[in-house]
Amino acid sequence: MSRTCRIGDVEIGPGKPLAIIAGPCVLESVELAVKVGQTLRDTCRDLGLAFVFKASFDKANRTSIGSPRGPGLETGLKQLAQVADTLGVPITTDIHTPQQCEPVAEVVDLLQVPAFLCRQTDLLLAAGAAAAKHRRAVNVKKGQFLSPEEMQGPVNKLAEAGCTNTMLTERGTFFGYHRLVNDFLGLGDLMELDAEGGSPPVCFDATHSTQLPGSGSQTGGRPERAPLLAKAATAAGVHALFIECHPDPASAASDGATQQPLDSVPALLRQVAAIRNAPDAGRTP
Question: Which of 75, 79, 126, 222 could cysteine-pair with 210, CB 3.0–4.6 Å?
């Protein structure tokens, strides 16, 4: 049995509209975030898709120590609050330490646990407690080194902290050096995870799945394959898609090698909406 996850006024799960979690990788400015968010919000609204805006106030797991990380916690949360107020949509951002969870939960609707940190007990317990206190949700990205079944651990830790308003995100699995692969057998297993209270909704990260990790001083990627993966995952029945996008990916402060050009995203969203709305397609039991 699957359950749903409520993020602000958006509900993700079986029988609900396909949700799009999207935005630039890192929070570069309020102006850019609003520009990206307005395009995504309006397109999703026209297509009957749910929308959650995403941008990170800090990217703590960069390849190089010299890579831009973002405005930081205090400034970043102020900017995210401005973006949320302007767009009128739920927002999500990454958390990296237990100390960030409480202040982030005061502002942000969905706390996102990065894949590399998905087994960190103190972080999960703090995220779960803060989310439960402020009636927020937690999204845990599946570690590139874990099987779908092993994601029961993070889900159980969040539940132990009082939070069952959770979801999981698939973002590829390590295959040798500098390569991620997407296991659609495993994606099906993740959507049927035998967790207490039912299987959490599953999101598919179409852009990070195209990364070539550690292939140089910056992570490389195959961004041209993200639309293919997004369409395949929608047909497989995922409840949400995660898509990072930017008006000019080549100049993006982070993940420029995998972000989608903003002007190409509306066409992709039209395609996934058509797949989702096809009779008997793109739906989990």
Answer: 222
User: Hey, what are 136's tokens?
Assistant: 């927020």
Tokens found for residue 7: 């993020």
Report the distance separating Cα 140 and Cα 127, nearest Å.
10
**246 phi/psi in degrees, rounded to 5:** -155, 145
Across the chain, the runs of DSSP E, i.e. the strands, are 5-7, 10-12, 19-23, 50-54, 91-94, 110-113, 137-141, 166-170, 173-174, 180-181, 202-205, 211-212, 220-221, 240-246, 260-261
Distance (Å, whole) CA 199 – CA 192: 6
pLDDT digits (tens, 9 = 90+) for 158-188: 999 999 999 999 999 998 888 899 999 999 9
Average pLDDT over residues 119-134: 98
Domains of the chain: 5-277 (3.20.20.70)
Q: Are 165 and 137 in contact (CB under 8 A)?
A: yes
Q: What pLDDT, in 10s, does the model give residues 223-240?
A: 999 999 999 999 999 999
Residues with Cβ within 8 Å of residue 74, at least 6 apart in sequence: none
Residue-wise pLDDT tens digits, 91-112: 999 999 999 999 999 999 999 9
User: Which residues on adjacent β-strands are paired with residue 94?
Assistant: 112
284 has pLDDT over 70: no
